[in-house]
Amino acid sequence: MNLRQDLRYALRTLARTPGFTAIVVLTLGLGIGANSAIFSLTDQMLLRSLPVHNPQELVTFDGPGAFQGRSFNRATFSYPMYKDFRDKNPVLAGVIARFPTAITFTHKGQSERVNGELVTGNYFDVLGVKPALGRLLSAGDDLKPGAHPVAVLSYGFWKRRFGLNPSVLNESVTINGFPMTVVGVVQQGFNGVVLSEPPDVMVPVMMKAQMTPTWNDLDNRRSRWLSVVARLKPGVSLEQARAAMNVLYSQINAEEIKQIEAPSERFRKLFLSKKLIVEPAGRGLNAGVRRDAATPLIIMSGMVGIVLLIACANVANLLIAKLTSRQKEIAIRSALGAGRSQIVRQYFLESLLLALGGGAVGLIIAGATTDALVTAMPMQDLVRNLSAAPDARVLLFTLGLCALTALLFGLVPALQASRPALVTALKDEIGTTSGGVRHARMRKTLVVAQIALSVLLLAAAGLFARSLYNLRTVDPGFKLDRLLTFSIDPTLSKYSQERTVQFAERVQEALLGTPGVTRVAAGEIPALTDSNWSMTVGIDGYKPKEGEDMNPSVDGVGPRYFSTMGIPLVAGREFSDRDTAMSPKVAIINETMAKKYWPDSSPIGRRFGIGRSHPTDIEIVGVVKDSKHATLREEIQRFVYLPYAQDNSLNALTFYVRTGATPETMVNTVRSVVRRIDPTLPVYDLKTMELQARESLFVERIMAGLSVAFGVLATLLAAIGLYGVMSYAVARRTREIGIRMALGAERSAVLRLVLSEVGLLASVGIVLGLAGTAALLKVMGSELAERMLFGLSPADPVTIAGSTLTLALVALLAGFVPARRATAIDPMRALRSE
């Protein structure tokens, strides 16, 4: 009953001051909304378990170390090794494997490029996933290579492509030119075991040759392309699984080394000493996502947490000011017998209502912020798995945050307000009570804390903004403007290598004949997509040191590539139409490669080979200027360019179109040209290179934008807090200031008096903020520099000085208004005031 009365009284009290209530709710809403938005992304990308049976029983394997052969998608296991794990382990209830690959999906004449996934027949059984329609793959669908033309659709793809129409069951579709039967749809909510690689279509791993027509490697132990997940047997711990699987792994490696021509005894020892890494997989195989997103999300979580602390300090300041004006009310309630606990409960309840109001506003802000962040993401595969709508976990987080903020900003003011000096309070002499002095000290302490935290946020904002500027102005070594890019994979439509090369030539010829197009070229690895291809090379006349890296980056390119991209030719020639699969093998290298192996002579005419012991049958015919390829962040690499016509595993090609007009106007033209040549081939990743460069900096742009927004918000809140404190201080010292002016004090002296207090508060806050910044940089400086910054150190003096100066100026500006008001005080009115 008392609680109900307190609640009604709290609601009436807040309703009587709608302006105050609205300001507090909005301030808290900004802080809580930012935290809820970042938590929503963090939860979905890093914390959430897979929607499978007992995800805590799942583990994943990794086998890094010495290896001979080739690897795809950072995978470390061949299919034969997967079978060894599956058939010979003593501690696992089931072992599955998967490999993501793009496929061309055709139904009723409509083709599109979608995400495919090769999975073992026991994939769904081991995970405990159920069908939404029909059946899923089973062990019987994974017995003989090429003999199981069946497919399972994801729920999202079924909805997007077929509108949830159940007639798709048992219907024939064409995948990579092969007819296959749809046997089922997977349950809603299951999007594979890798967040960033949600499959649209899943097929048995025995259909490998059909899904990757340029390479098979199903029985090749020296080809690593599979990710492996296993389920522990009941009662088996993670440590027991590690011990048992490493015994098996050592036995497998001991057999495999017999089939490898080890280049040295050191390699042999390293190969045999490899350890199998066994880690929990209940949250999925999101190593790439965690690697790329964990640091930014942790930093953003810290920043929004600081914003919330500043918001709480600001609200606490407002509450202290309001409670000071309510001292008489509190004194009357105390005199009438209200205990201290009752008073604290009453005012804490008001704080909780304010926090809940802030939480409601925060959920709206969180939804809009999350939606904006998800929409802005260029990684469309990842976006499919992310939701902007707050779910139960986000609601619980927000509710907990409301309770925490109520404690942070409401408890201390409530405790202070519950200890009034009854006599002076009842006589309305609040300004002279010790409680008034306590309140003033508390408010100043809170402002100092706000300024200190704002220094930290402004320094972070400056670092991220300058880093983004450095990246956006870095010279990639080629010209981004007026350059259009798109990709096509003819091999997924049963094109042979010869037909693929001919198709590329036809596309380039057709585009060159299009008005507005000045140059066209093609390459295998798309630029600025964080894609990389490297090969071991053996160079004629060069003996590598023990353990030396002989793996330069590689790309297959065609005629006119360098002139189209704007990469200057230093020596020799470009590739021409005469560099075919039947002609002598040739290569072009960059300056870094030339300086590494031929520092004192020309590399033109020199030879090298693929592999350390293979024939050096490739002649260098040209040298080009250094340029970046995978990312704008990368250091310049040794680079080898080969004619794609001489690549016996040629598949997807990326075309580059240099235009005389705005490249965006050529988008429909490009699609029409390709459609005229072959309407069954889907064009994908069609965009300008400038857009590709911006998308490649998505994380940096988001970090810079949000950190600047949070820094500005924090500084604004700190300025408002400082303004409130100084206004309150001037009001409390009205009589003192009047006496000073009556005794002859100049207005400039009064101005200095008030501003000196502002300067003291700002100086203490800035010093504490700089100390906190230095401590934080010491803890995470190397991680911050390596992952998040470019072209500057975490302790960059210009950025630190700039953030300090900015905050000092804002603080002086915030304090100048009440200081100016103090100089306008009428001495006679001040002397008459009580």
Would you mind describing this structure in some detail?
With 834 residues, the chain is α+β, with helices and mostly antiparallel strands. Among the domains are: 55-282, no CATH class; 446-472 and 699-834, no CATH class; 490-680, no CATH class. It is built from 25 helices and 23 strands. The strands form four sheets. Strands 15, 16, 17, 18, 19, 20 and 21 form a seven-stranded mixed beta sheet that branches. It has a six-stranded mixed beta barrel with strand order 3-4-9-6-8-7. A hairpin with a 2-residue loop joins strand 7 and strand 8 (178-186). Helix 9 runs parallel beside helix 13 (392-417), helix 9 (287-325) packs parallel to helix 21 and helix 23 (747-787) packs antiparallel against helix 24. The longest helix is centred in the C-terminal third of the chain and has 41 residues, at 747-787. It is globular, with a radius of gyration of 34 Å. The chain starts with a helix and ends with a helix. Mean pLDDT is 86; it is low at 421-426 and 429-435.
What share of the residues lie within helices? Answer: 40-55%
| Coarse shape | globular
Q: Quote the beta fraction.
A: 15-25%
Structural class by sheet pairing and helices = alpha+beta
> How far is the first residue's CA from the last residue's CA?
41 Å
Helix count equals: 25
Q: Rg from C-alpha positions? A: 34 Å
Q: In terms of per-residue confidence, which ranges show pLDDT below 50 for 5 or more consecutive residues?
A: 421-426, 429-435
Number of strands: 23
Brief descriptors of the model:
single chain; 834 residues; alpha+beta; 7-stranded mixed β-sheet; 6-stranded mixed barrel; 25 helices; 23 strands
